[in-house]
Amino acid sequence: MKWYEICIRIYESILEEPVNAFFFQLGASGTATEQKEGCLLVKGYIPEKFFQKDIHKEIERFLKNLHSIFPDIKRSDFHISEVEEFDWFDKWKDFFRPIQVSKDLVILPAWDATDIHAKYIIKIDPGPAFGTGQHPTTQLCLRALESLFYEITDEWNMLDIGTGTGILAIYGAMLGIRNIVAIDIDPAALRWAYHNIRLNNLLHKIILSSAPVHKIEKRFDVVTANLLFDEIKDIMPYIRPLFKRFLIISGILEEQIAPLEDLLKKHHIDISNISFQEDWVCIISQRR
Questions:
Q1: Is 208 contained in some domain?
Q2: pLDDT digit string, tens, across residues 114-172
Q3: How far apart are CA 281 and CA 29, in angstroms?
Q4: 109 near 93, Cβ under 8 Å?
Q5: Is residue 138 domain-shared with residue 226, that is, in the same domain?
Q6: Same structural domain for residues 222 and 80?
Q7: Which helix (H) or strand (E) holds 275?
Q8: Among 285, 195, 198, 219, which residue's Cα sits nearest to residue 248?
Q9: Does 83 share its domain with 178?
Q10: Of 279, 278, 281, 213, whose CA–CA distance to 248 is shortest?
């Protein structure tokens, strides 16, 4: 899979956070910041499927707006380059640090030997798959799963649609869900998910499958889907019959809440909770 590295040069650290947030809006799976003399290079790594033809114009608009907000800071510039799967991972690996997702959960890069004290520690080796824990939608889904902790019994089962690195399935298993099916139509994602599930010693709890969602017939107590809105829209007719108790959806931008509500209403699904992080949204629906 092809990736794109977008590098924005900034001259004050105050701009780093808005640039990182902008990269995630574009669909970046990870970001990195490199210190240079007199400036910072903020880099976002975007998979080909999220790379838009007019992305140059979008970046130019963003930088123009940024300059209007901070007119006293030297104007930023940018460049875009293609990186191969191995190259991007090698570059980004240097910048992937432990992530505190919640009071109880820390995501630890598989190669990091840091002594971490937390109730739950997920070891992740991301490879080319989505779901390192850096992206707001991944964090929102992890916290949504955690919010169900006191409901969960060891009789529960879970379906993770578009599992990526396997991170949501892994946390579901850590929280006590005994039987989990994690599906993805990308063979590379399934390979990395298997690797991460093994890293966390959870192969006995999680089954991986390349089956598309419309081929799934079993019903599940929890269904998670951290996907783009258009993908959610396409598979919603198949999701509705699958969840018995809770549905967790993210990958949704704030401006997509209204169309998502309409979509869920059409399928007789109520929203019981909405959470926000940056420009992203996660919803929990409970079965009527």
A1: yes
A2: 788 899 999 988 665 556 677 888 999 999 999 998 888 888 999 999 998 899 999 99
A3: 17
A4: yes
A5: yes
A6: no
A7: strand 271-277
A8: 285
A9: no
A10: 281
Strands 120-124 and 105-109: parallel
- Computed on alpha carbons and rounded to an integer, the radius of gyration of the chain in Å comes to 19
Q: CA 116 to CA 106: how far, in whole Å?
A: 8
Alpha helices in 70-156 (DSSP H): 85-93, 136-147
Look up tokens 């869900």; give the residue: 177
Q: What is the DSSP string of 124-145?
A: E--TTSS--S-SHHHHHHHHHH
Distance of CA 240 to the CA centre of its chain: 22
Which residue, of 65, 91, 117, is where some domain finishes?
A: 91
Q: Are 222 and 168 in contact (CB under 8 A)?
A: no
The CA distances from residue 77 to 50, 190, 247, 281, in Å, are 21, 37, 42, 30
What does pTM read for this prediction?
Answer: 0.74
Print the domain residue range for 41.
2-91
Please report whether residue 84 resides in a domain. yes
Tokens of 74: 């030297």
The residue behind tokens 């994690």 is 182
The string of pLDDT tens digits covering residues 69-86 is 889 999 999 999 988 766
Examine residue 11 and state whether it is found in any structural domain, yes or no.
yes
Looking up tokens 């579901």 gives 172
